[in-house]
Design a protein that fits this description.
Layout (H helix, E strand, L loop, with lengths): L1 H12 L4 E5 L2 H15 L4 E5 L5 H14 L26 H17 L2
Helix pairs in contact: 1-2, 3-4
């Protein structure tokens, strides 16, 4: 939704292979189908990613590096605000993990 979906739509309109990294399979798949229909680009795919989970970040990065021959653009725009204080299963504060640690780790893993 929001900025991420707009960016994905623009990339797909430019005929780019576009990977949507989403926490929710249902919402992500709906966005994929909407973007494919609006752009005519069948190369829009969904991969699950929760940036609050470093294990999820590692799995996502590993799959991208294994499955994709190249990665030209990375847009980190996941973020949360206003959540009550919570600790992730990995012992990290949820907002900090989602907004900073996860995207930082993802970027560094994808750099190779």
């Amino acid at each position: 939704a929001g900025i991420g979906k707009c960016v994905a739509m623009d990339l797909a309109r430019r005929n780019a292979r576009t990977i949507l990294a989403c926490r929710s399979r249902e919402r992500g798949q709906a966005a994929v189908e909407e973007i494919r229909a609006a752009t005519g680009n069948p190369a829009v795919v969904l991969r699950l990613l929760d940036t609050a989970s470093l294990a999820s970040v590692r799995a996502f990065a590993s799959a991208v590096l294994r499955e994709e021959s190249r990665l030209d653009v990375l847009v980190n725009n996941a973020g949360v605000t206003g959540l009550p204080f919570a600790i992730t299963s990995e012992g990290l504060e949820q907002t900090f993990a989602t907004n900073y640690l996860g995207p930082f780790l993802l970027t560094n893993l994808l750099l190779g």
